[in-house]
Amino acid sequence: GQQVMQIPQYQHVQEGEDFTTYCNSSTTLSNIQWYKQRPGGHPVFLIQLVKSGEVKKQKRLTFQFGEAKKNSSLHITATQTTDVGTYFCAGPGGNNRKLIWGLGTSLAVNP
Amino acid sequence: DSGVTQTPKHLITATGQRVTLRCSPRSGDLSVYWYQQSLDQGLQFLIQYYNGEERAKGNILERFSAQQFPDLHSELNLSSLELGDSALYFCASSVGLQGHKYGYTFGSGTRLTVV
Q1: What is the pLDDT of residues B61-74, one digit of tens each?
Q2: Which residues pair with B75 in a beta bridge?
Q3: Please, what are the averages of pLDDT over each run of 10 residues along chain A (111 residues)?
Q4: C-beta atoms of A41 and B101 within 8 A
Q5: How far is A108 from chain B (nearest CA, A)?
Q6: DSSP string spanning B3-26?
Q7: Which of A24, A27, A57, B109 has its CA 20 to 30 A from that of A73?
Q8: In what order do the strands lie in the sheet with B64-68?
Q9: Are strands B19-24 and A71-76 parallel, antiparallel or unpaired?
């Protein structure tokens, strides 16, 4: 079945370093969504990308959707301790009835 | 406050018991989704309702069932509970299907502990 893979599973960085997580789908996606879950919290919607090659920025976060619409990335510039959490990507299933979720990338930031 | 209300926040129960988790979606959202998240695990999709009708099923056990009522709130029933059912159960809602454009809004979850 359709799968969404995320790498890396875990990432440990020093505060101020950059961080990137990658999301790869086994099929072409009509859109991709990114969520952040803080430790002990619930997932929070960050953004949706729809167009091939789309790039969107939210302050220090840059989201990119691949040209083939099968992969995406989230890049954080100069990480801060407030960036700690798990970042999930998700895309619509082939039957358009549900989102297929990646397993997430857990980010730890050392102050 | 995300606008999605889940009750109770915590639940401790014994094996073999049955519990009901409740979710009120954000105002205006017609879709409700249930997810299970075990320790250090991703989000496991259980089931989705849209305007009272079941729309999609994930890996939901036969011991689990759900429904969405006319006022759009939803309940997830877990029966014959096992130790392995201990997890965080999230409800999410969205305006339409798949959270297009605005994504899913998650509640704060119900932490279920089966002892």
Answers
A1: 999 999 999 999 99
A2: B22, B67
A3: 91 98 94 95 96 97 97 98 97 76 95 92
A4: no
A5: 14
A6: S-EEE-SEEEE-TT--EEEEEEPP
A7: B109
A8: B5-7, B19-24, B74-78, B64-68
A9: unpaired
